[in-house]
Amino acid sequence: MPLPPGEPDNPKAVAAWIVEQTQARDRFAHIYRASEEHRLRHGPDCTVYPTSSGPTLGTLAAVVDSKRILEVGCGLGYSALWLAFGSSPDGLVETIEKDRSHGEFARRHFEQEGYADRITVHQGRGAEVLPGLTGPYDLVFSDGDPDEYLADLDHFLRLLRPGGLLITSNLFLGQHDPNIPGLDQAAAYRLRILDDERLLTSFLPTGMALSVRRR
Ligand SMILES: C[S@@+](CC[C@H](N)C(=O)[O-])C[C@H]1O[C@@H](n2cnc3c(N)ncnc32)[C@H](O)[C@@H]1O
Ligand SMILES: [Zn+2]
User: Fold this and answer.
1) How far apart are the first and last CA of the chain?
2) Ligand 1: which residues within 6 Å by Cβ?
3) Gap from CA of 55 to ligand 1 centroid (Å)
4) 92 phi, psi to nearest 5 deg
5) pTM for the complete prediction?
6) Could you tell me the distance, in angstroms and rounded to a whole number, from the CA of residue 86 to the centre of ligand 1?
7) Helix runs in the chain, H state only
8) Which one of 8, 45, 172, 199 is CB 3.0 to 4.6 Å from 207, fit for a cystine?
9) Which ligand is nearest to the CA of 70?
10) Rounded CA separation 71/141 (Å)
11) Candidate from 82, 98, 133 with most ligand 1 atoms within 8 A of CB, to mutate
12) Predicted confidence (pLDDT) per residue in 81-103, tens digit
């Protein structure tokens, strides 16, 4: 039987269909674009790479029925907006950002989108902010630089509720640049989340890790 017109007929075409159709319906696409434009303006040290998984984050936040969400690596707020959108109607997101200017841009985006009362930015590095936080959180999204990943993981295990979800990005950055600080930590982190009996972990084809805190 002939395929329906436009039906993707190979893995590359399927991937292209998913990108095209989800991007066309991304409610925060303008924040994604603003993040990309910012990085090009800000200079070579800027690491504001908005996630390619915004709608996936929103879906996962909804699945977990999240009321309290924690993020490391706010950037300009694209992923935090998706997490807040997917969470319960009264769900709260706390996001940690080390770069003051990124935090300020993100706050403006949260106001502009009507989420200022549901998303809070903590200014500082995760390593500085995490020790002062108290759980439980329903979902944690880790999207910062990998150079403090191992210390952060101990806090995520402390802060996540049983049945809560840890989502980790930036675990395979060596494919883009061998000189990124913390690649050794990312490598050790990948194995720890697979081997730690408190977590049940799987990886998406993009390299993003999903780890459930076991009950
Ligand atoms: C990959 S971008 C985050 C993109 C954002 N999550 C999104 O999808 O829109 C990384 C951001 O995290 C910040 N960052 C990196 N390492 C951090 C850390 N250890 N603690 C706090 N912020 C960090 C960077 O300044 C940058 O703004
Ligand atoms: Zn920047």
Assistant:
1) 48
2) 35, 47-51, 72-73, 75, 78-79, 96-99, 102, 125-126, 143-145, 148
3) 18
4) -115, 140
5) 0.97
6) 20
7) 11-24, 29-42, 54-63, 78-86, 100-112, 126-129, 149-159, 183-195
8) 172
9) 1
10) 5
11) 98
12) 999 999 999 999 999 999 999 99
- Indicate which atom in ligand 1 lies nearest the CA of residue 141: 6
Quote helix, strand, coil % in the chain, to nearest 5.
45, 20, 35
Which amino acid appears at position 78 of this protein? Answer: Y
Nearest to 115 by CA among 58, 162, 155, 56: 58
Nearest CA to ligand 1 atom 2: 48
Domains of the chain: 29-213 (3.40.50.150)
Atom of ligand 1 nearest to the CA of 148: 19
Collect residues with CB below 5 Å from ion ligand 2. 42, 46, 48
Tokens of 84: 């807040």
**Which residues, in sequence order, are CB contacts of 161 under 8 Å at separation 6+?**
135, 136, 137, 138, 213
The amino acid at residue 128 is: E
What is the helix (H) or strand (E) element at residue 209, kind and residue range? strand 209-213
Could you say which ligand is closest to the alpha carbon of residue 53? 1
